[in-house]
Amino acid sequence: MVADEEGPLCDQAEFDELVNGMVATFAPRLFAIVQEYGDRFDARIAAWGMAFDDEDEVEVISVGGALRMSYRTPDRALRSFARHP
Questions:
Q1: What one-character-per-residue DSSP string does 14-49 give?
Q2: What 3-state DSSP class applies to 71?
Q3: Are 4 and 15 in contact, with CB atoms under 8 Å apart?
Q4: What is the pLDDT of residue 4?
Q5: Which domain of life is it from (predicted)?
Q6: What pTM did the predictor assign?
Q7: Sheet harboring 57-62: ordered strands across?
Q8: Radius of gyration of the chain (CA)
Q9: What is the pLDDT of residues 4-41, one digit of tens each?
Q10: Above 60 in pLDDT, residue 63?
Q11: DSSP assignment, residue 65?
Q12: Strand 57-62 with 29-37, pairing
């Protein structure tokens, strides 16, 4: 039987609250990968990432969108953008 055939679980306000709580609980953690140049000389945001708590999954997209990658941890993603002095 399909759930909507049984009728709503609750009123609209309570349902909205439940869905908003679910979104807040399971939202990925956002982070930036920043490349620093010199000793506090300059820096740039190289990429943005999302880390999902319930899985070993990190998604990264470079600024401009030319590069998209998946990793197990944010630290592994950071290594891809490391530059030697």
A1: HHHHHHHHHHHHHPPEEEEEEEEETTTTEEEEEEEE
A2: strand
A3: no
A4: 59
A5: Bacteria
A6: 0.71
A7: 29-37, 42-52, 57-62, 68-71
A8: 20
A9: 578 888 999 999 999 999 999 999 999 999 998 888 89
A10: yes
A11: S
A12: unpaired
Question: Residue 52's domain spans which residues?
Answer: 28-85
For the stretch 37-52, pLDDT in tens is 888 899 999 999 999 8
Q: What are phi and psi of 11, to 5 degrees?
A: -75, 170
Domain assignment present for 54? yes
Residue 22 lies in a domain: no
**4 domain residue, yes or no:** no
Q: Which of 58, 65, 8, 69 is nearest to 30 (CA)?
A: 58
Count: domains in the chain: 1
What is the DSSP-derived secondary structure letter of residue 61? Answer: E
| Span 51-76, average pLDDT | 90
Residue 13: both structure tokens together: 């306000």
Confirm whether 39 is domain-assigned.
Answer: yes
Report d(CA 31, CA 15) in Å as an integer.
30
